[in-house]
Amino acid sequence: MxxxxxxxxxxxxxxxxxxxxxxxxxxKTSSQDSLSVAWQSLIDAMHQxxxxxxxxxxFDSEQDQARAYLLLSRxxxxxxxxxxxxxxxxxxxxxxxxxxxEGGDNPDQRYSFAEIKGNTDxxxxxxxxSAARLEVQLYAGRPWANEGESLDYLAFEDIExxxxxxxxIQLLRECSQDQKNCLTNPSATTTVMVxxxxxxxxxxxxxxxxxxxxxxEGKAKTAPTPGHVAKRIEAMAYTMHQSAVxxxxxVKSRYTERRPPNMxxxxxxxxxxxxxxxxxxxxxxxxxEPDQALVxxxxxVDAPYQGIQLTDLWFASLEYGNRVTSLTNKQSVIAPDGAxxxxxxxxxxxxxxxxxxxxxxxGTFIMRYDGMGGAIAQNLWPxxxxxxxxxxxxxxxxxxxxxxxxxxxxxxxxxxRRHIQKRFGF
Length: 426
Known about the structure:
The protein is an alpha+beta fold. 29% of the residues lie in helices and 25% in strands.
């Protein structure tokens, strides 16, 4: 509890310092100065977000309380990067790296976002590198928060690469008929997102990604004005609050209130609900006692990418660079019966497919199947079983035969860290 109080005190101290500067006369020209008014709206949004987050039932254990303030801090940083520092005329990709987590972010992906203008021409250049797949998607607003929609999508199967894995993808006012590597950029577009998806977590170069507005290369950037910056700060305030409350609300409505814990949902074709074409997903939430384990029985399917991950109740991925909280089918051991058994529990089990809850007793799990050309037969849908840790050998075939040493686990984590360093340039 003392640690949580320290975090709360630090967050409150930051609010106080920000408020003090905002109210200092030497930084204002009048009580109605647009910059001061915008800055105050940011402070109000931060306080409201704090109140909203602390009201969730999840704000109970010390670890979840600490994670709540990490959510608030990441929401603030997202608002700064997305709304204040972004310039659609001179865009750069902002990256959701291991420090910036939200929305059930997939540890197997490198998410890159750029805020752009609709009905405007852009080009994305890059090299695939060790990524297994690459996807480009256009959004209007924030469909994940029921404030917009997915507009268009370019699947990996439709992207042409050169001999070195290089690519150039255009976002144009209008793509010509049968034009390759092109997405039409309608007037409603606000964001382009690129997913680079990794299966083996290779130590090879992870690939590159860059974006430009066509025709603006070399043009001078306009100097900021008070009115323009004030407008951006107000947008930052809204984004900060929205990001802080959207994800725990989503966990509540789609996970903890939708079905009992320790169950797997039916597999869902996300394309039918505005998601990515060829992506099927299943999910659930776990609630475990220290001596319990949730065993997910899965089967390999005909998907270029298949993976499982854990998140906290604030919908941030669990530490995945230095803990094993996610696995792809290529990283997983297949049991003698042809199934893949994942063991979700707090304590080290020695089983290769152990998913570490990092001390959490509650959280969510997400399973993704990407690049499917059709439906997944129901006999291949994942299932869950809650067991005592002492019963794992009775549930998983050859459990003891497959067990690994603590030194093997250390090397597994070391390989993950090396890949993350490559993927994000750390």
